[in-house]
């Protein structure tokens, strides 16, 4: 793949912040993890052979009738309640007409002016400051199929000769969550957007309605942004950036667009209302579809589906069954674990760390140790492999086992790192690795004592200092003993022996 | 006349139906008659009657989240004008960014 470059002029971010106010808007699609599709019993499972998860309903063949998946409606209501939304006592589905081959019916069943949930509020914290993200609506709709473009450069639509459509994803239930304009984020707009996405991800996972994996398209973000010169009140022209597939790129894409729009406006230009595509490899956005002309979808009430009228009892029952929300859970765990704000910030800032530490603690590990292993050794390993923490081939219980071995004095911290590496390399359980690799620290006092004697003999000047009361010099001797023992010694015990022998 | 040939031309474009100027001129008054007939409902149904979208007063027709067998891909592809690699083959998609 050739990396592309961008010729966009960019204004320095700090300068944009001095001259403009940022207004954000986020449209997020959540792919629900139901077993069957939104209107038919076809499987939603990923990775089937092309068009093997299709039927007359999801292909929109004449004479077929859609019937709503109750679990999807329930999931949409639970998402709405978790966003602090009102739930509509009565609402309808609507047809959104457009022609694009990924939509076999030539329309998408969505909701128009009667969303199932509306008027919510999400409260977030970024670097210790609180921000509010007002929610306009959450509505139900269906996913589209996948296209394979043939004949041009590999997989690209430009220059392709024809396209091949696989409708396995067509009709998979989606919930679209739309914010109202988000103002007052100061210089933190991109970070607030990222925190909002992280919040939604944690929320849908806690609800169990979706795994919320952005890289797999289970959570998709269209990020709108516009700039207003400071002191003015009229909204600027916005752009919508698509193809933003990770938390990091939500922040980066918005930052890029803010700097690009700043340069356009400062140069006396006009921001074009358009859809832009985020180029992950290059770190820039490119112009896509122009949106200057309002699209005409000719929405009308879906005649094939009757209205949804969730009863008060049903809604209240769903409300009562809501799980602890992420922010509440974080606050509770921080207090249970006695982590400082700074320590907690690192945990919150690392995707998946909170749940992994929680599971590790549940497996018997001390919170501080669980935090240490996941945020240092394992975070580094995940970084090197370019995967998320939760995708590392190590279970929280194994991390807890490593810590148990450390606390039992079987291994020290340094050996623990070797053991963790070996677990990641697939060598088995920590206990087995310690045994098979002979990693346990030497607890044979005779061998230890002999190594200490040898180190003292080899470093008479250091030994003399310690005899003279300079116990802080013992570090050099501990290092020498460790070297002799191949790292397999308990540093604390070695220190005790050295002091005892030299006093 | 409420519906102009320009309106019909726009609708035809949105519905991807190709119409000649002669066809437009012929269809516009016909559609207008239909619209007028529908509009006459307004004389009976006053402001206090909400517009209805469904003929039957039913709500909450839902199914449990259970899988049913899909159809064989060959059966689903049988009606397609063209296919390839077990997929529906469609003509080149003109992306707006092609035009710049
Ligand atoms: Zn189906």
TrEMBL record, chain A:
Reaction(s) catalysed by this chain's protein: L-glutamyl-tRNA(Gln) + L-glutamine + ATP + H2O = L-glutaminyl-tRNA(Gln) + L-glutamate + ADP + phosphate + H(+); L-aspartyl-tRNA(Asn) + L-glutamine + ATP + H2O = L-asparaginyl-tRNA(Asn) + L-glutamate + ADP + phosphate + 2 H(+)
Gene Ontology MF terms in the entry: asparaginyl-tRNA synthase (glutamine-hydrolyzing) activity; ATP binding; glutaminyl-tRNA synthase (glutamine-hydrolyzing) activity; transferase activity
Highest taxon in the source lineage: Bacteria
One Pfam family this sequence matches: GatB_Yqey
Domain annotation Asn/Gln amidotransferase: ranges: 355-502
Function comment: Allows the formation of correctly charged Asn-tRNA(Asn) or Gln-tRNA(Gln) through the transamidation of misacylated Asp-tRNA(Asn) or Glu-tRNA(Gln) in organisms which lack either or both of asparaginyl-tRNA or glutaminyl-tRNA synthetases. The reaction takes place in the presence of glutamine and ATP through an activated phospho-Asp-tRNA(Asn) or phospho-Glu-tRNA(Gln).
NCBIfam families reported for this sequence: gatB (TIGR00133), PRK05477.1-2 (NF004012), PRK05477.1-3 (NF004013), PRK05477.1-4 (NF004014)
Matching InterPro entries: Asn/Gln-tRNA_amidoTrfase_suB/E, Asn/Gln-tRNA_Trfase_suB/E_cat, Asn/Gln_amidotransferase, Asn/Gln_tRNA_amidoTrase-B-like, GatB, GatB_Yqey_C_2, Gln-tRNA_amidoTrfase_suB_CS, Gln_synth/guanido_kin_cat_dom
The family this protein is said to belong to: Belongs to the GatB/GatE family. GatB subfamily.
GO biological process per UniProt: glutaminyl-tRNAGln biosynthesis via transamidation; translation
Assigned keywords, A-Z: ATP-binding, Ligase, Nucleotide-binding, Protein biosynthesis, Transferase
Species in which this protein is naturally found: Propionibacterium ruminifibrarum
HAMAP family found in the cross-reference section: GatB
Description of how the protein assembles with itself and partners: Heterotrimer of A, B and C subunits.
EC number, as in UniProt: 6.3.5.-
Annotated gene: gatB
The protein's name: Aspartyl/glutamyl-tRNA(Asn/Gln) amidotransferase subunit B
From TrEMBL, chain B:
Region of interest (Disordered), residue spans: 79-100
Enzyme Commission number(s) of this protein: 6.3.5.-
Pfam family, one: GatC
Leader sequence segment: none
Source taxon at top rank: Bacteria
GO BP, sorted A to Z: glutaminyl-tRNAGln biosynthesis via transamidation; regulation of translational fidelity; translation
Record GO terms (molecular function): asparaginyl-tRNA synthase (glutamine-hydrolyzing) activity; ATP binding; glutaminyl-tRNA synthase (glutamine-hydrolyzing) activity; transferase activity
Swiss-Prot/TrEMBL keywords: ATP-binding, Ligase, Nucleotide-binding, Protein biosynthesis, Transferase
InterPro entries: Asp/Glu-ADT_sf_sub_c (IPR036113), GatC (IPR003837)
Listed SUPFAM superfamilies: Glu-tRNAGln amidotransferase C subunit (SSF141000)
Reactions catalysed according to its record: L-aspartyl-tRNA(Asn) + L-glutamine + ATP + H2O = L-asparaginyl-tRNA(Asn) + L-glutamate + ADP + phosphate + 2 H(+); L-glutamyl-tRNA(Gln) + L-glutamine + ATP + H2O = L-glutaminyl-tRNA(Gln) + L-glutamate + ADP + phosphate + H(+)
The family this protein is said to belong to: Belongs to the GatC family.
Assembly and oligomerization: Heterotrimer of A, B and C subunits.
Function of the protein: Allows the formation of correctly charged Asn-tRNA(Asn) or Gln-tRNA(Gln) through the transamidation of misacylated Asp-tRNA(Asn) or Glu-tRNA(Gln) in organisms which lack either or both of asparaginyl-tRNA or glutaminyl-tRNA synthetases. The reaction takes place in the presence of glutamine and ATP through an activated phospho-Asp-tRNA(Asn) or phospho-Glu-tRNA(Gln).
Protein name: Aspartyl/glutamyl-tRNA(Asn/Gln) amidotransferase subunit C
Organism listed in the record: Propionibacterium ruminifibrarum
Gene: gatC
